[in-house]
């Protein structure tokens, strides 16, 4: 056991903001350094506005060499660095460190190369997700991962968070659509991870890097895998008068060997919240609806839609509607993709959770969340990637009430800990960041957290990159005081446990 | 830069074999410890018989607790440990360390749990790959990765090597079909990596572990993802009178948005070698044949086969034949899967390489290999996972001629280094092991190798697990004297290089 103590992660920050800015101005043009509070303020949080902090300085480098110089300078001064894309993250991962530098990558926004024959694009980290698909559309290609924030979020941020989206059930997460990453460590080492081949020799450091939430290095270039646009896509909207039936339908679709392009569930609270806003044509009387997409060649889609409909009927769908046109299909998705803003219309504030559970536990967990609504006296709409078992409960509260804020946080923690209990995880695609760092103590054992910290130090021995996030120290876990409840659903009773 | 010196990897092995065996007998029953040379000899090599070494002792534990005790004992005595499944690996990864203990996992061969509804199986590491598919067949399921050695190789070995197979183009490598791994570090820590959900919080240590070739820990339990058996599968055999046309057909199939269940190429040398042996019905007059499989629902297969045929015709296939029955389909594959034994029939020895290249470079690399046949004066048959760009050139030689052995090794090294030059990798699915450790110096920069070593130490600070394999020390690279030629095909001319 290589126990990590908090001492090992402590640093003496011996420099003040003025000194840091002076050093940064030696390596960057003046317009790339923001040091006045009013200029830095817009960077104080990401999409999770619960956590805010103004950094000592914001730097906006324009070249890879400048990024390297910033990292080497911060390393020398022993100053924390937090990288940031568009700041659309939902777990506080890009929240600045008050004694650190915020490294914005927005200016590195060039698509450097498109190779349509090989179906790859080489892009800088600040390129927006949707901009990639727009640029490669003339070649009949697109970039598959489509987080709801895709109009704004950047590829660098997607890499940091291993972002998903409504189509990741079939097309995978970011890790499945990234071939190579070029990045710089805090020591200024330029490292390329991955390759154009399907597998790389040696331990797979690309997979460790994608989703490492800015803890290991700063991305300077990403080689993306592009996907041919399908000839046709159609969405089935299936209504159910019982959430458990809808959940069972999800498992049955997968058990039938069908991998839908998307398979999303929304409960009645969610459809009734969204419909007046988007007018997507949702069945607002159903206890839950599923949106199930088939894409591919024309004949394939006809065949797959028929098979999907048969499953839904067998499981007891009360109503089935198949999109008749591309505009209707997009409208069905528009309702789903606008669920968060719709929540913002009906509640002063909402708190979006991101637990993942085995699909078989969907019904059980949804019923438990309903019971929690009474327990915490707060409403919760459920909108989620059902095919992945990735829940996005939207807890509605009013941040003007300190009591409601506390109840919302407790409600969220209770959902996440239930996810772990049924064999799931505390985050599907939004990352741990600041938000779920306590739940990491529940998800992982002391020995497992040790391994994360060991890998962290292999890349960042001084723990300067995005410190105090993602992986909790043992002291923090002791303080949080909740037990590790690993591996709920699988009985390992015949093995010793430590 | 955190330069790793060779000193950091050195150990003082201060104990002799007798002392090691004495200590092992304190924690294991006598029948689980082999210490006589004649008993250990069968473990001296794996499938790559070029490298042999007899260990100080072989242990064959029967429980997880015994594995943990072995590891803790070896850690205390500072003795290297090499884990072994069935010993079918092709890169010397399971070759014992002469001053170490060989840890055989064959006795942990129980399938502990099958959950057909969730499509998962929980197995011990010594379970054979094919035994999983056999056990779950009654539920209409199978385990997708199918290395050619699947009748003998174990799941633990598959995890160590991230094994593939002819169907991994569509169904993924081992990493894509493993949900969780339970493993023990050299310090006796029991660690579970991954989860039943599609993604896990924190850096993805499961992906780093799968394919780490026994360097990070010893697997004691694996949770596998099972796949529903398709209703139908058919194979097209397409003939081409030019290897470049066949290579282009591979790219065109993928560019058409088709993901075949398998897409394999064999050149004329290979078909002429295999046909007399297997009588698979191959077109032995063609310069190359492709085997292209479609699987799925009956209507889907009909549609996809038609689309595949259209692509092949457009690219200039001289002959197309579609399997008419399941037995003919299996016969088409039998030829491919028996290519290695067929090579053994026509040549005293053969050396199977495993480079991976971008699909677009297939034609260029195959032509270069043909030129190398003249240069090294040795024959080479090409049989490979074309869809993945994963080459398996079979270099034929006679090990009774020292000169032929040297030429075969140089031929192999030249192929691998060409793979790196065109942007590929030195290994696709067979691992680095002993065999390709020098080529790692060509594939990766000093800073990149440093990161591998850092991750290694995060799990195994004393570098006792499978030492001196996979990741070369800097001293070894200096001695090998070949340059790192990273990222051949992509022009990064506008970025500084280090």
TrEMBL record, chains A, B:
Residues 51-229 form the FAD-binding PCMH-type domain. Its cofactor is FAD. Gene3D superfamilies: 3.30.465.10, 3.30.70.2740, Vanillyl-alcohol Oxidase, Chain A, domain 4 (1.10.45.10). Pfam families: FAD-oxidase_C (PF02913), FAD_binding_4 (PF01565). InterPro entries: FAD-bd_oxidored_4_C, FAD-bd_PCMH, FAD-bd_PCMH-like_sf, FAD-bd_PCMH_sub2, FAD-linked_Oxase-like_C, FAD-linked_OxidoTrans_Type4, Oxid_FAD_bind_N, Vanillyl_alc_oxidase_C-sub2. It comes from the Bacteria. Keywords: FAD, Flavoprotein, Oxidoreductase. Transmembrane segments: none annotated. GO terms for molecular function: FAD binding; oxidoreductase activity. This is Glycolate oxidase. It comes from Jezberella montanilacus. The lineage of its organism: Bacteria, Pseudomonadati, Pseudomonadota, Betaproteobacteria, Burkholderiales.
